[in-house]
């Protein structure tokens, strides 16, 4: 039974129904993707017309030390943010899928960060981490930072960013895991219990394997999403201290809109798109995600 | 992994998924403890946000970040509104409403065609939207800026709406077409008996049947539009075209020493969404969960 591919005699809508959306999307999202690659071979200040300059931007990109540090920071952030978020979201989601009392109340509070904008969250944490007036001034001495300046050291600033994005995005991924954990057939748990599995064993043998697809989906979203932590970094650390929390999107923004080097920014952006695509493909291949496609082919 | 997922009801998201419940009733202490810790981690900053917003600015500097306010400092609110907060809110409302309407106007017919049409355009579009999910908005801000300036829309609210809608479209189309697949063939058949054409079917059957997902998707787009930062940042300039998220950033520069004022602005910027959450939480959660389920 394939829904949609019907044998019914109802009249079918023509292409005209899909064209407005398709053309709109092509113009404002697909075209820019093509343009960004083209612009990377030009020099453009944002005013007038882009001028073709060959591969100058790309040679500059390859020799730019800031690109190297930004890439390193981007990858570090990606890895640590992924680890922190998954380690929290998976158990929280599984727990929230259960039938505990008070779960509804707790869940309602859990998902509150979803409502705040990145800007609001970054500013909230910035105020908390302020070394003079924030909570950091009080808490710092307890954790071995006497002056409370957690955000003032390269490593500390990176940790602060990870804390902020984890706080921001864990609720969403908890939701994904919660939905998936609810769909695990109860009979599997019953069978595991009959075989004498304790809770930990049934988590390992039943829950984790059953959540595999969700782990992949959530991880793709996290890893690709981490390429876009631009707002958080702009508002929380501004790339500092020094250039220790520069990431590629931030570097691109600065090149484009602070130094008017649009062509060079386009080269960085193209690199970013390639990185994101490679990353998604790698995860998909590596995890056998492609077998999940069957769920999408209800055409 | 061939567990057939039970078809989610397209009309009304159930408060509890209709899937099989786990019959395990042993209390899970470890996970329960973790969730309590997480509750504190989530709740504490939000609690501080509310407390600081209501604290007098001089008290805040004197008593430190962990003191309770002596009274409610209403002055913080008037201060924020004196700093053009009202204008920013109005702009944000405009952008949000415009984005929701345009997204639905484009996505609903598209989803209908993707599910029911046999034209190659529909299946090609479906593939484009699938791949389009992976286009990061951040990476294409330079060409988007180029397109918007060429259209002579720079520094208008329309400039913010257009790319916001574009980057929400793929997911919205996929969610809507997913829910339309659950509409049974007999219903379409029944419509043809009295000679309805595709448009009438769309108007009389498809729209009423997707009511539930329309509100879900609308909330989802609204949330993204309301909280959007990067498009307003690069496509608007004038104070009169500034949205709230961007306004917060500028306040940070102005209010360097006035934490309570800044926090009040943060709080007020979230207030409409929070009210929505109180009344439409189920739709919102269903919409977000639908993202991963598809």
Automatic annotation (TrEMBL), chain A:
Localization per record: Cell membrane
Transmembrane segments: 16-41, 75-97, 104-125, 156-176, 220-242, 262-284
Domain ABC transmembrane type-1: start-end pairs: 71-285
Keyword flag Hydrolase: no
Keyword Translocase: no
Domain of life: Bacteria
UniProt cross-references to Pfam families, sorted A to Z: BPD_transp_1 (PF00528)
Cellular compartments per GO CC: plasma membrane
InterPro entries registered for this protein in UniProt: ABC_transporter_permease, MetI-like, MetI-like_sf
Alphabetical keyword list: Cell membrane, Membrane, Transmembrane, Transmembrane helix, Transport
BP term (GO), one: transmembrane transport
Topological category with respect to the lipid bilayer: Multi-pass membrane protein
Family: Belongs to the binding-protein-dependent transport system permease family.
The protein's name: Xylobiose transport system permease protein
Organism: Catenuloplanes atrovinosus
TrEMBL record, chain B:
Membrane topology: Multi-pass membrane protein
Keyword Transmembrane helix: yes
Top-rank lineage group of the source organism: Bacteria
Domain ABC transmembrane type-1, residue spans: 89-280
Sequence segments annotated as region (Disordered): 1-24
InterPro entries: MetI-like, MetI-like_sf
Keywords, alphabetical: Cell membrane, Membrane, Transmembrane, Transmembrane helix, Transport
Any Pfam family matching the protein: BPD_transp_1
Subcellular localization(s) per the UniProt record: Cell membrane
Biased composition (Low complexity): 8-21
GO cellular component annotations of the record: plasma membrane
Transmembrane region(s): 29-54, 93-115, 127-148, 160-180, 214-235, 255-279
One of the GO biological process terms: transmembrane transport
Recorded family membership: Belongs to the binding-protein-dependent transport system permease family.
PANTHER family associated with the record: ABC TRANSPORTER PERMEASE PROTEIN MG189-RELATED (PTHR43744:SF12), ABC TRANSPORTER PERMEASE PROTEIN MG189-RELATED-RELATED (PTHR43744)
Protein name: Xylobiose transport system permease protein
């Amino acid at each position: 039974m394939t829904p949609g591919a019907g044998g019914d005699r109802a009249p079918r809508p023509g292409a005209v129904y899909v064209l407005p959306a398709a053309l709109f999307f092509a113009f404002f999202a697909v075209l820019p993707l093509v343009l960004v690659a083209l612009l990377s071979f030009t020099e453009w200040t944002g005013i007038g017309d882009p001028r073709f300059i060959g591969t100058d931007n790309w040679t500059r990109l390859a020799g730019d030390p800031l690109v190297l540090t930004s890439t390193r920071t981007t990858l570090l952030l990606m890895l640590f943010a992924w680890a922190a978020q998954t380690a929290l979201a998976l158990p929280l989601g599984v727990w929230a899928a259960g039938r505990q009392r008070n779960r509804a109340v707790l869940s309602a509070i859990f998902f509150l960060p979803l409502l705040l904008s990145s800007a609001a969250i970054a500013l909230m944490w910035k105020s908390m981490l302020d070394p003079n007036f924030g909570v950091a001034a009080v808490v710092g001495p307890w954790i071995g930072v006497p002056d409370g300046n957690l955000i003032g050291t390269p490593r500390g600033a990176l940790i602060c960013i990870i804390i902020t994005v984890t706080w921001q995005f864990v609720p969403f991924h908890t939701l994904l895991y919660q939905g998936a954990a609810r769909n695990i057939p109860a009979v599997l748990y019953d069978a595991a219990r009959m075989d004498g599995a304790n809770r930990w064993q049934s988590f390992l043998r039943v829950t984790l394997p059953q959540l595999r697809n969700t782990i992949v989906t959530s991880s793709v979203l996290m890893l690709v999403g981490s390429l876009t932590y631009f707002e958080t970094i702009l508002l929380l650390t501004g790339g500092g201290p020094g250039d220790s929390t520069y990431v590629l999107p931030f570097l691109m923004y600065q090149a484009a809109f602070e130094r008017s080097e649009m062509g060079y920014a386009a080269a960085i952006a193209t690199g970013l798109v390639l990185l994101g695509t490679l990353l998604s493909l790698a995860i998909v291949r590596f995890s056998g995600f492609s077998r999940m496609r069957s769920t999408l082919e209800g055409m | 992994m061939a567990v057939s997922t039970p078809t989610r009801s397209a009309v009304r998201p159930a408060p509890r998924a209709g899937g099989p419940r786990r019959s395990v009733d042993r209390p899970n202490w470890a996970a329960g403890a973790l969730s309590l810790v997480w509750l504190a981690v989530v709740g504490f900053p939000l609690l501080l946000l509310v407390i600081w917003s209501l604290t007098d600015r001089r008290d805040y500097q004197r008593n430190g970040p962990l003191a309770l306010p002596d009274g409610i400092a209403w002055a913080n609110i008037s201060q924020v509104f004196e700093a053009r907060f009202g204008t920013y809110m109005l702009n944000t409302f405009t952008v949000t409403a415009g984005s929701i309407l345009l997204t639905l106007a484009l996505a609903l017919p598209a989803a209908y065609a993707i599910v029911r049409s046999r034209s190659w355009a529909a299946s090609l579009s479906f593939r484009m939207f699938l791949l389009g999910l992976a286009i990061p908005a951040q990476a294409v801000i330079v060409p988007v800026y180029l397109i918007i300036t060429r259209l002579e829309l720079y520094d208008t609210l329309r400039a913010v709406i257009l790319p916001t809608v574009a980057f929400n479209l793929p997911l919205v189309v996929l969610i809507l077409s997913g829910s339309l697949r659950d509409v049974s063939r007999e219903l379409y058949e029944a419509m043809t008996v009295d000679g309805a054409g595709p448009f009438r079917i769309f108007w009389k059957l498809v729209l009423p049947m997707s009511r539930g997902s329309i509100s879900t998707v609308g909330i989802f787009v609204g949330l993204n539009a309301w909280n959007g930062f990067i498009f307003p940042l690069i496509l608007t300039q004038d104070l009169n075209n500034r949205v709230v998220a961007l306004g917060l950033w500028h306040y940070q520069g102005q209010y360097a020493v006035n934490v309570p004022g800044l926090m009040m602005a943060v709080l007020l910027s979230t207030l409409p969404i929070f009210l929505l959450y109180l009344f439409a939480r189920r739709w919102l959660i269903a919409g977000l969960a639908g993202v991963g389920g598809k």
